[in-house]
Amino acid sequence: MKLRILFTLLLCALLFTSCKQDKKETKIIPEQSQTETTSKPSKKILSPHTSTMAMIGDAHIHIDYSSPGVRDRIIFGGLLAYNQVWQAGAHNATWLETNKDLTIEGKEFKAGKYGFFVIPNEEEWTIIFNTNWDQHGKDEYDEKDDVLQFKVTPKISEEVQEHLEYKIIKTSDVSGTMSLSWEKVVVEFPFEVN
Fold first, then answer.
1. pLDDT, mean of residues 128-144
2. How many CB atoms lie within 10 A of CB 90?
3. pLDDT tens, residue by residue, 32-82
4. DSSP class of residue 174?
5. Which range is the signal sequence, renumbered to this chain (predicted)?
6. Radius of gyration over alpha carbons of the chain, in Å?
7. With bands split at pLDDT 50, 70 and 90, how would you rate the model's confidence at 7?
8. What is the SS3 assignment for 69-118?
9. For residue 58, what are the contacts with CB-CB under 8 A and spacing of at least 6?
């Protein structure tokens, strides 16, 4: 009889331990934990922040902008209406900084940091340099803060430039060209270092 009771107690203890182990195992690797530990794919940045810079003579010229993509959209005359001010990039206003005075379109352009804006049009673009360089988009754009405005004829390319791109190209020891290209439009203008 004692042997039977001892055997029953031992059997109960084994079953209890076995059940407890099964519960522990299911708690260790629950389904929810597996999904939490799997890494999520990184989100693609649609308008990456970038910049371009160049040394022309003693002048260090820097353009800072966010570069939106075309993504199968009509950009000029579509996403961006003609004859309206655009911050010439995505998010914050594009800005240009130079440590030396320049001459652009025969006008003196003082060393400093400026917001770069444009007014696109099919026939000609208005290029604008504005003292208010630190703003979101064109939210605070005011024409009274413009230091230089001039017109440029856009060039139409056969190739699509997927992301907005600025270039500063040295043409001599004291001159160069600045350009922006996006979609099928290229806009450029020359400058000289004073």
1. 93
2. 18
3. 434 344 455 667 788 999 999 999 999 999 999 999 999 999 999 999 999
4. T
5. 1-20
6. 32
7. low
8. ECCCCCCECCCECCCCCECCCCCECEEEEECCCEEECCEEECCEEEEEEE
9. 99, 100, 193
pLDDT tens figures, 56-65? 999 999 999 9
Count other C-beta atoms under 10 Å from residue 35's C-beta: 8
Q: How far apart are CA 111 and CA 102, in angstroms?
A: 7
Q: Tell me the one-letter amino acid at 65.
A: Y
Please report, as a single letter, which amino acid is at residue 12.
C
Distance CA 115, CA 110 (A): 13
Beta bridge partners of residue 113, listed in sequence order:
97
Specify the pTM: 0.76
Q: Which residues does 2 contact at the CB level (< 8 Å), separation at least 6?
A: none
The CA–CA distances, whole Å, from 85 to 62, 120, 185, 193 equal 22, 8, 17, 27
